[in-house]
Amino acid sequence: MLSVAVIASALTLTGCALRNIAYDVDERELVGVWGQESGDHAVSLVISADGTFVASSWPRNLVCSARSADTVEDLNGDDLVDFGGSWRSVSPDLVYSLVFSIESGDCARTGWSSDVWDSGSGELELKIFLDSVMDPDSATDSQIFWMRKDARVS
Which of 74, 104, 123, 141 could form a disulfide with 69 if both were Cys (CB 3.0 to 4.6 A apart)? Predict the structure, then answer.
């Protein structure tokens, strides 16, 4: 019994952190630059307080093509697209659940939804499921594209 308590304490002290949905996120915290280094380029998403967004250097098969990548490894860094549109929370009670509507740019699709997560170290992340996800609860890491708030993007 003592060994279990020692292991649990060690895990707590070493800062093992798990991602969790950011249930308490405030809409003002969503505004800003979100990014992800993907291969040799930086994917960025700028969310504005007026309900608009601008996405830059996104692999077309992430959310803009009729058929998206099955895994993150399948994202095509040679076919990048910029687009913009509007965003909103699903409801005042579900600020962490976002809907993005693509309104400009060269995209075959009209939008996507994402949830905001806490990285486990206090940083906010957007969780974008690829089209290959049929059941979000059973999605693998290779079927999720993560973007981090205020990430350094080139």
Answer: 74
pLDDT band for 134, please (50, 70, 90 cuts).
Answer: confident
**What's the CA gap between 119 and 21, in Å, rounded?**
9
**Helix, strand or coil for residue 101?**
strand
What sections of 14-111 are H helices per DSSP? 27-30, 60-63
What are the b/e assignments for 65-103, b being 16+ CB within 10 Å?
beebbeebeebeeeebbebbbebebeeeeebbbbebebe
- pTM above 0.70? yes
- Phi, psi angle pair for 19, to nearest 5°: -70, 145
Cβ(53)–Cβ(46) below 8 Å: yes
Instruction: Please give the helix or strand (H or E) that residue 117 lies within, else none.
Output: strand 111-118
Q: Are 116 and 99 in contact (CB under 8 A)?
A: no
The kind and range of the H/E element at 80 are strand 80-89
